Amino acid sequence: MRINGNTIFIPGATSGIGLALAERLHEAGNTVIVGGRRRELLGEIAQRKPGIDTIQIDTTDAASIAAAAAEAIARHPELNVLVTMAGIMRLEDWTTPAGFVETAEATVTTNLLGPIRLIGAFIEHLRAQPDATIMTVSSGLAFAPLRVTPTYNATKAAIHMLSESVRLQLAGTSVRVVELEPPSVATDLMAGQRESAFAMPLDEFADEVMQILRDEPDATEVQVERVKFLRYGEARGDYADVVATLNAHDPHAAA
Fold first, then answer.
1. How far is residue 223 CA from its own chain's centroid?
2. CA–CA distances in Å: residue 177 to residues 44, 74, 201, 249
3. Is 232 a catalytic residue?
């Protein structure tokens, strides 16, 4: 993915990683459209960053995704990058149905069905562009599990394999598939995560991602150094130690 000259739609980017990357991508010379559910947050972003466009979208709702895609393409026919950023992360207790079933269903809808529906809404448009990118967002937890978030871990593992598979299908087309693999980042994804000593500072993460995009435009997996501990545990042969360390250090591991 080239670092500038794109028109990029990032749903789920009204805060956290999505917003930090949206701002940096805009500053790097891209047209950026931020999507989100809450009109007031979209209004604040538009006022603070007048060069960034905004579109209301609920990535849990198929009709909303279709409507937002039509609006984005109509307003920005040169749109050539889709970042499937939206996601939720919730604590679960799998010892009782009341502890996980509802949360698990919501997590699958947002984290897995959301990206699938987004890609479905944009794929024909992207294939018509001379140079296009789909950036999926998995997690270090796709490769090593946090005990208290089973469905989050599973959906991110699914996003990783989906990215690998769709990349094979789109080989030879104008559409590249790039997978962003964040470690724990200091955001409000979960309660207490912003203050966690284990989490990577948001600005540090976003700056390193931008540097990777500059230095490695052909990368298929965007990995900051902090995530490689999780990503390559099995390859290094220390997977059990990785899992033990992850669950010992995370503030939610004892929950």
1. 13
2. 31, 23, 26, 32
3. no
Taking residues 54-63, report their average pLDDT: 97
For residues 24-45, average pLDDT = 95
Distance CA 15, CA 200 (A): 16
Task: Out of 9, 152, 205, 229, pick the active-site residue.
Answer: 152
| CATH code linked to domain 7-249 | 3.40.50.720
- Convert the pLDDT of each residue in 102-113 to its tens digit: 999 999 999 999
Distance from the first to the final alpha carbon of the chain: 39
Q: Which two tokens stand for residue 214?
A: 């500059």
Question: Rounded to whole angstroms, what are the CA distances from 46 to 19, 98, 249?
Answer: 12, 40, 38
Residue 29 Rama label (left phi>0; alpha psi -120 to 50; beta): left
Dihedral-angle region of residue 177 (phi above 0 means left; psi in -120 to 50 means alpha; beta otherwise): beta
What is the amino acid identity at position 11?
P
96 — phi, psi (to 5°)? -150, 140
Which amino acid belongs to residue 90? R
Asked whether the CA dihedral 57, 63, 65, 71 is positive or negative, the reply is negative
H-helix or E-strand spanning residue 166 = helix 150-169
How long a stretch of residues is the chain? 255
Distances in Å between the Cα of 134 and the Cα atoms of 18, 105, 127 are 15, 25, 11
> CA-CA distances (angstroms) from residue 24 to 21, 153, 206, 243?
5, 28, 8, 33
